[in-house]
Amino acid sequence: MNISRRLTIDKLTKKSAQGESKEILEKINNTFGMVPNFYGNMANSSNVLSGHLAFDSEIKKGVLSPQLIEKISLAVSALNKCEYCKRAHFTIGKMNNIDPKELKRNIDGKSDDQKHSWL
After folding, report:
1. Which region, left, alpha or beta, applies to residue 16 given φ > 0 means left and ψ of -120 to 50 means alpha?
2. Using one digit for the tens of pLDDT, what is the confidence trace for 54-95?
3. DSSP string over 89-109
4. Residue 116 CB-half CA count within 13 A
5. How far apart are CA 8 and CA 101, in angstroms?
6. Are 103 and 74 in contact (CB under 8 A)?
7. Which of 50, 51, 39 is nearest to 9 (CA)?
8. Other C-beta atoms within 10 Å of 102: how many?
9. Between 3 and 36, where is the model more confident?
10. Burial class of residue 83 in the structure, from the number of CB atoms within 10 Å of its CB (0-12 exposed, 13-18 middle, 19+ buried)
């Protein structure tokens, strides 16, 4: 017998969230003009949400370019079979001026860019 269960987490909005999560979601809304579902789900725990944002901020301070960060994120999303993340990182990749054809190759773990061929 194969029993499959799916965990669902309520997505919070800047209106339904409380405390620190509400403050963080309001900042995200001010930055993006909206609150992506991903952040709304994480807002159930202000520690998770603030921790993710801190991690994201620290990665951006490193030596990896925004383009490479998105290429890696897209390849990992594909490996994890997360369609939501793949779509998000594909869109962010285009916003970072990565050719959509290259992004499609990144989904397959490939790259035409010699510096990134290890993907």
Report:
1. alpha
2. 999 999 999 999 999 999 999 999 999 999 999 999 999 999
3. HHHHHHHTT--HHHHHHHHTT
4. 21
5. 34
6. yes
7. 39
8. 17
9. 36
10. exposed
